[in-house]
Amino acid sequence: MSSPTVRETSTRQRILDAALDLFGSRGVDAVSLDEIAREVGVRKQTVLYWFASKDELLDAVLEEVAAELIVVIDAAVRSAEPDPLQRIDAVVRAVFRPAVRRPAMLGLVRELTRLPEAHADRLRVRVQPLVDRCVEYLEQEMDKGHLRRADARLVVGLAYATVTGIATDREVLRAVGWQPTTSGLRHLRDELRAFLRAALAPPAPI
Amino acid sequence: MSSPTVRETSTRQRILDAALDLFGSRGVDAVSLDEIAREVGVRKQTVLYWFASKDELLDAVLEEVAAELIVVIDAAVRSAEPDPLQRIDAVVRAVFRPAVRRPAMLGLVRELTRLPEAHADRLRVRVQPLVDRCVEYLEQEMDKGHLRRADARLVVGLAYATVTGIATDREVLRAVGWQPTTSGLRHLRDELRAFLRAALAPPAPI
DNA sequence: AACACTGTCTACCATCTGGTAGAGAGACCT
DNA sequence: AGGTCTCTCTACCAGATGGTAGACAGTGTT
Q: What is the pTM of this model?
């Protein structure tokens, strides 16, 4: 099909990347095809050549987000420690860097709520198995007493909300006086880990 | 000035309300003045009569959000128990209902990150004192050993992110199979409270 | 009766939006 | 050389957007 000729940073891919960043950081409706094209250094009609419509472009972007999210999280989940708290910690560490570096990514996930259901479903369906696996795992560990007893489904949602919120809501961090320096980043990550660990740990440790 | 003649739901106020809901739920850029006007049952030019421009309307909306947020949170903070965990619990309970009932409210706060700084500042400046007071309070309680020792500023940010995220990210809740029924709501609220309590409680209780 | 003020409206306008039609340049194939 | 295919472009277009100008009706005020 559209197998690349030489460079892998094909026009198509560059459009996808630019669209992800713009959609995620400023909102889908607020970003015009002209703007995406300008960002890539190309005309709007070139964008429409690769993606028949804005809708189709958005679908492709969501597909990419799903793929990246799945890769990052799945890898972290698999290669982690046996202790659930450490395993969760590994996921947070793995997610944190890309999330803060590229807030558009999670920003786009957040954007889902504002999108027509058809689009939202496209991403949700892909991520769903991952969520279900997480829930199942948490339930097992709760049963074993390794995690605080709670509704595993909602705990997944709550933990996700915490991570996403802190990674995307820059204004909130500004309001509490946080600075986006390197050490600030590390500090934030560590506090986030401690926060989640405390929220998930069983009430009476060992 | 624009003191209402008879009904308090003046055109101006109805425009503000509609704008808040639309801006907050769908994004500022994605909502047109025509749409707001249609929602109110009036022509676009009437909107522009009350607010000279979309920017000015947005400013007024942000001002209203700030006022409401401050009232709700401040009241909960003041009228609460002496124990910090119970006090936090009271705040969560107080914020939760309006937040879930009118997600546009917190949605608009989230929207700040996407807005020009001038607008973001307008709200942040108003909420800042409240944040500072919260931080100070948490620090005191941490010193007394009533709360888990942590960076109080970031803890405020994290707790806020959790509440806002769970209240506004409907898609996430759908993904974990949550249903917006009455009992579902209560259940969600209780899990949220337990989650935050665990995240903030000191490691060795009593 | 004349006037001014208030609030809503109709009539426009320049600009931007997503999208169509099709030209043109280069690469590849025969 | 001729033809086809791939990719990017210019030229448009219909509709929406934020905003201006000003008409018009109702309500006091004098």
A: 0.89
